[in-house]
Amino acid sequence: MMQIDPDYTIQDEQALRALFEPTHGLALAKCQERLGVHAREFIRRSPFLCIGTQNSEGRADVSPRGDPPGFVQVLDDRTLAIPDRPGNNRLDTLANIIANPNVGLLFIVPGFDDTLRVNGRAMITRDPGVLSRMKVADRLPRLAIIVSINEVFLHCAKAFRRSRLWSLEAHQDRSEMPSLVKMILDETTGAPKDKDEMQKLDDGLEEAYRTTLY
């Protein structure tokens, strides 16, 4: 394991801030306690978000969530509802919320270099009045995550422009890496050597995608 020289470790906020120029006034002023008209519109357009959580010991996790645009419901100007769709049943995000309700959300809109950040406190609900608003393909989610907003602000485009995320010229060929199933098996129990057997496993995952999205 690579060793990091402890003499260069930043150990307090004062030392950290000494390395940077003061925060721009607009960057401070943009933080709001409730959703404005533009934040609402951003959420309405967004088909994808990442939710950051921590367990009771501070162990962090980030999970992607996606659905048709506008899948996150704005219940009021300080409350959001996120449907919980079928997944792998690890339940990392949900278990973390029970242990530690503080969450961070990052909303992404395809083609937009700007993002929307929301920080708040979350709870999990089975309230039929909430779930009934979230039907897709005639199926309701089993649960919803309710987020009470503490802070909301638009985030600048630098990260997306540096990464060229939406640029077709920057897109990589997925076939240059193995399938998801093979990568997991390679690093756990070992992937089958027989190509036909491996193909059956890959086809099984695709069938699961087709039949269990909702």
From TrEMBL:
Coiled coil: none annotated. InterPro entries: Pyridox_Oxase_FMN-dep, Pyridox_Oxase_N, Split_barrel_FMN-bd. SUPFAM superfamilies: FMN-binding split barrel. Residues 39-153 form the Pyridoxamine 5'-phosphate oxidase N-terminal domain. It comes from the Bacteria. NCBIfam families: PPOX_FMN_DR2398 (TIGR04025). This is Pyridoxamine 5'-phosphate oxidase family protein. It comes from Peteryoungia desertarenae. The lineage of its organism: Bacteria, Pseudomonadati, Pseudomonadota, Alphaproteobacteria, Hyphomicrobiales.
